[in-house]
Design goal:
38% helix, alpha/beta, 16 helices, binds adenosine-5'-diphosphate, 407 residues, globular
Length: 407
C-alpha cells in the first residue's frame, strides 16, 4: 500500500482535489516529477455536481469510472463519497493525511497548522473577513473530520506568505483603532507565491534573492514584490477584491464610487458586493466574458478595451510595487493568463519598457521559461505555479506522513 496525501481546495460551488504519493512530496526532487496519482474537480456543487479527473499521465478518467453524484449534494455527503472513490480509483493507495487550502489565517498564522478544535475555533472567527471562501474551506475540513475522525489534517493559508511584511506595508490610513481591530492588508495567493519563491534559485541562481515581482494572473489576479524570496508588499489587501483588475472583480477602485452606489443609486451592500465580486473586471468591461482566452479571440472592440485596461492596470500595479523593494531585477508571470497569454505579457511589458523590460518575441510566443531579450535590464520568466504541491508538502511535514490506522 502506498501512503498518499489528499489535497483539497474547496470553494462555494466547486472542489478541486489531488492525491500525492507521500514519497514524491517528501523528497526534495524536482517538483516537475511530482505528479499526483490523480487530480480532478467537482463543479456545480449544490446544484448539478459533475466530477472530472485525470490520472498521473494526464489521461482523463472515463465516464464509466467516475463517481455518480446526485443533484443538490452538499459537502457532508460529497466528501465521504469522494474519499471512498479516490481510494478505489487509485490501486493500492491509502490516504494518510489531508491538506486543505484555507483562504484566511488572520494575523496569527504565518505558516500551515495541524487541524485541531482550537484551530477551527480561530478560523471560524475569520469568516467575516472572507465570507465567500472561508466557510467552504472549513466545511470541507469538518466533513473530512466526520468521515475519518483519526485522519491527520493540515490547513494551509493563502495569507501566511505575506506575514513577513513590515507594518508599513500592511497598514491602511485608517483610524488606529480599526487597524488594531485587524483591518489591515492581509494579501492572498500566498501558496502560489510560496511555490514560485521556492523555484526562483533554479531559474536565477544568486539573483533569486534580489528584487522580484511575481504576477499571478488567473481568474483572481495579484502581484507580490519579494526580496530574499519573502513577501515585502502585495496588491491584494483586506480582501481579494483589491489591486489588479480580474476576471470578474474590479480591483482597486475609488471608495467614493461605493458610497455613490449606496447613497445615490439605492443599491444594497449585497448588490454592491455582487457587482464588485462578480459583475466587474474583464466581464464587466467587455460585457462578453470573464475569460481572457475568449476575449483574445473576440473581434469586439469592448473585448479589446477590457484587455487593454487589464494590462494597463497590471503595469501600473507592477510599477508601484517596485517602491517597497527599491527597484526590480526580475518579473515572473504565473497562473492561467500569466503562463499562457503571450499577448497579455507583451502588452504589460510594453508599458514597462522605460524601466528596461524587453521581451524576446519568439520566446514569449512559445511560453518559454525565460522570455526577456538578452540585454534586457530586467529578467522576465514564466514559471507555472503549483499550489497543490505546497499543500501536499506542508501536510507531509506536519503529519510525519504516518499512515492512519483504525479507520
Ligand atoms: P483560477 O484563478 O480560477 O485558478 P487560472 O489560473 O486557471 O484561474 O486562470 C484562468 C484564466 O487563464 C482564464 O482567464 C483563461 O482564459 C486564462 N487562460 C488560460 N489559457 C489561456 C490562453 N492560452 N490564452 C489566454 N488566456 C488563457
Amino acid at each position: 500500500m502506498k501512503d498518499a496525501i489528499l489535497v483539497l481546495n474547496a470553494g462555494s460551488s466547486s472542489i478541486k482535489f489531488a492525491l500525492y504519493p507521500v514519497i514524491s512530496v517528501s523528497d526534495t526532487g524536482d517538483a516537475d516529477n511530482q505528479a499526483p496519482l490523480i487530480r480532478g474537480k467537482i463543479t456545480g456543487i449544490g446544484n448539478n455536481p459533475i466530477l472530472s479527473a485525470q490520472d498521473r499521465t494526464g489521461n482523463k478518467i472515463g465516464q464509466n469510472r467516475l463517481m455518480p453524484i446526485a443533484p443538490n449534494t452538499e459537502y457532508d455527503d460529497l466528501i465521504p463519497n469522494l474519499l471512498g472513490w479516490l481510494e478505489s480509483s487509485v490501486d493500492d493507495a491509502t490516504i494518510c493525511a489531508a491538506g486543505h487550502r484555507v483562504v484566511h489565517g488572520g494575523q496569527g498564522h504565518d505558516k500551515p497548522a495541524r487541524v485541531t478544535p482550537e484551530l477551527m475555533n480561530d478560523l471560524e472567527k475569520l469568516i467575516p473577513l472572507a465570507p465567500l471562501h472561508q466557510p467552504h474551506n472549513l466545511a470541507a475540513i469538518r466533513a473530512v473530520t466526520t468521515a475519518l475522525p483519526d485522519l491527520a489534517q493540515v490547513a494551509c493559508f493563502d495569507t501566511s506568505f505575506h506575514r513577513t511584511q513590515i507594518k508599513l506595508a500592511q497598514s491602511f490610513a485608517l483610524p488606529r483603532a480599526l487597524t488594531d481591530e485587524g483591518i489591515i492588508r492581509y494579501g492572498f495567493h500566498g501558496l502560489s507565491y510560496d511555490y514560485i519563491a521556492g523555484q526562483l534559485p533554479k531559474h536565477l541562481g544568486a539573483r533569486a534573492n534580489g528584487r522580484v515581482i511575481v504576477a499571478h494572473l488567473g481568474n483572481g489576479a495579484s502581484m507580490c514584490a519579494m526580496k530574499n524570496r519573502q513577501s515585502v508588499a502585495t496588491s491584494m489587501g483586506f480582501t481579494a477584491l483589491d489591486g489588479l483588475m480580474m476576471g470578474r472583480r474590479c480591483g482597486t477602485i475609488d471608495p467614493g464610487v461605493i458610497l455613490h452606489l449606496i447613497d445615490n443609486k439605492g443599491m444594497s451592500s449585497q448588490e454592491v458586493g455582487q457587482l464588485l465580486y462578480n459583475q466587474s473586471g474583464l466581464l464587466g468591461v467587455s460585457g462578453i466574458s470573464n475569460d481572457m482566452h475568449v476575449l483574445e479571440t473576440s473581434i469586439s472592440p469592448h473585448a479589446q478595451e477590457a484587455i487593454n485596461l487589464f494590462c494597463y492596470r497590471a503595469a501600473c500595479e507592477l510599477a508601484s510595487l517596485t517602491i517597497p523593494i527599491g527597484g526590480i531585477d526580475t518579473i515572473v508571470f504565473t497562473a492561467g493568463i500569466g503562463e499562457n497569454s503571450a499577448y497579455v505579457r507583451q502588452k504589460i511589458c510594453e508599458h514597462l519598457s522605460w524601466m528596461g523590460v524587453f521581451l524576446d518575441d519568439g520566446a514569449n510566443t512559445k511560453n518559454a521559461p525565460r522570455i526577456s531579450k538578452a540585454g534586457s535590464d530586467v529578467d522576465v520568466l514564466i514559471i507555472p505555479t503549483n499550489e497543490e504541491i505546497v499543500i501536499a508538502r506542508a501536510t507531509c511535514n506536519l503529519t510525519n506522513s504516518r499512515p492512519v490506522t483504525g479507520r
